[in-house]
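Q: Convert this sequence to structure tokens.
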Amino acid sequence: MASGYAILSIWLIGLFSITGTLIALVAAFINRDSWSYDEPYVWQRKMKE
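A:
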């Protein structure tokens, strides 16, 4: 039974590692994509005086 718990823990660690990596990659993509979209419209806009 102890080997079953070891295998289960290995699977869970792997599953959470893959999920965490995918979430981090998607968050980085969204951050970079929104920065690229906002840059010409917001950051380079001239302020009205």
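The mean pLDDT is 85.
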